[in-house]
Amino acid sequence: MAERVLACAPCHGPQGGGTANPYFPRLSGKPAGYLYNQLVAFQEGRRRYAPMNYLLEFQTPAYLGKMAAWFAAQHPPSPPRPMVAVSDAVLAHGQDLVMHGAPDRGVPPCSGCHGPALTGMEPAIPGLVGLNSQYITAQLGAWRYGTRTAAEPDCMQLVAAHLTEEDVAAVAAWLASRPVPPDATSAPAGTLRMPLVCGSEPQ
Amino acid sequence: MRARHWFGALAMLVLAWPQGVAADAPSESDTIRTGEYLARAGDCIACHSNPGGQPFAGGRPMPTPFGTLYSSNISPDPEYGIGRWTADQFYTMMHTGRGPDGGLIYPAMPFQAYTKVTREDSDAIFAYLRSVAPAHVPNRQNDLRFPYNNRALIIGWRTLFFQEGAFKPDPTKSAEWNRGAYLVGGLGHCSMCHSPINALGGTSESQAFQGGLIPMQQWYAPALNSNAQAGLGEWSLEDIADLLRKGVSNKGAVYGPMSEVVYNSLQYLTDEDTQAMAVYLKSLGQQAPPAGNATPVPAAESSLLIELGRAVYAAQCASCHGADGRGKPPAYPPLAGNQSIMMQSTVNPIRMVLNGGYPPATQGNPMPYGMPPFAQSLSDDEVAAVVSYIRQAWGNRGDPVTAREANQLRAAPLD
Prior knowledge:
The structure holds two protein chains of two kinds.
Chain A: H1 9-12, H2 32-44, H3 50-56, H4 61-72, H5 88-100, H6 111-114, H7 133-145, H8 155-161, H9 165-177
Chain B: H1 3-16, H2 28-41, H3 44-47, E1 61-64, E2 67-70, H4 87-96, H5 111-114, H6 119-131, E3 143-144, H7 153-161, H8 175-185, E4 212-213, E5 220-221, H9 237-246, H10 257-264, H11 271-284, H12 299-316, H13 318-321, H14 339-342, H15 347-355, H16 380-392, H17 403-409
Antiparallel strand pairs in B: 1-2, 2-3, 4-5
Helix pairs in contact in B: 2-6, 4-6, 8-11, 9-11, 12-16, 16-17
């Protein structure tokens, strides 16, 4: 399988572990259901990035599932991520939003769905550690502008719509500053009581 | 027997003998199955559906040099689709490019080729389309620039480029060859891409299969009648058939828009029809003189380019395609002796290096190997160098390409 998905390597690394380019996410170790949903979203144009849309256009669901399962099973070391130069106050705001949310503004904590260790939950909620701040910022922006959509109800679209520019910068900076824990496996399915209903995650 | 006749016959039989149907008349479900097969051979779904959308609901944007056309709803919805059409009207549309109201259809619909489809096959396709789920989706207005938004212009286009007619078998050729010619020239509508397209958006019958750059998509569809391009005259029938039904062969893999054709259409054809197309396509291939010098690169610059290309190849390409360029087919196509790389048009090899790509996943090749894109990691100079190198290494004969050509193709659309 590694040879069959070499096409992914220039941007995502040979085992999907990520590369120095901050805009290409780490794939390895993410829940297979999450990765599969993304592959299908790229194929159907619900997630738009021309090189991905192009590469996946004529692949079957069965093959996309195999690709997703393979990357989910890889656990290469995480490449070093650049430090994000922001103030301690910004990092503190980011940590507060990630762990506690902003209930007065309808923003749930990230940890509610992505887990207290932020390593995601099976089958389809991704971990948030090990990503670069630029990638996280770009994805939250993409949800706001509709270039990234998920199955309805699209809970991340709702969350992104409630975040200000400052919130996004703070959340992205704090998440990117977190080390990947030694055991980065996702929480078992159904072990978290999610604050929102999400079309991608059966509940 | 024409289906409209047997539909009539069937109705009478049912009235007379509710329990019995003549044994030699195809049942309606057989006709629908035949129609489904033929609709696949015609690849109707590719243009008349959107990715992730309901099949045959139309609305797919078709960018042209004259503006954007939107394909029509061909599901059996009575309001927006073809639910109120008759088999006669459907055949007239296929055969003459005129809708039920007599209106002229834009030639993005390949009636230039479908005019060769028999009445029987047209009726079966119609029966199939009538059997799919109706999509209550309105048709979208075309977005063509003046003066192309004037449908009367189609009259002029038709005078120049459209010849109504039925498929005429060549009695000097085998039945297999004729079946191949019918599929390639009719439902397959291969000439839509594999022929030069002039400034008026037309192709002339006399230039059929001579190859051409596909407008807007910026992929070059190689000449099917030249051994210097598609090169099918020198391929074995097995390799041609493999390429058509699996998307990969020992000689090369499909890429670009041809991936779509294999994925949605050709992989579903029977072995007999695939073989017939291979027999016909192989017969088209003629010896052709080597391509002339299209992009003169000064000799000194050229040798520097080749040296850089050799280094890029060794670092980026050789692990799959081999230092000897022979690849490991069918997973990694050979580059040595591969006409796709040596063609006068340099568009395809440059784009493959920039964009990479997966051959389609097919029944015969369900887990294809993908070529990585190098647009992010190689400079224009490096892309030009490595393409120049593979066009001249291992006895390949192709002219060097320039960094300018590589740069221009970075902007080529990926959808």
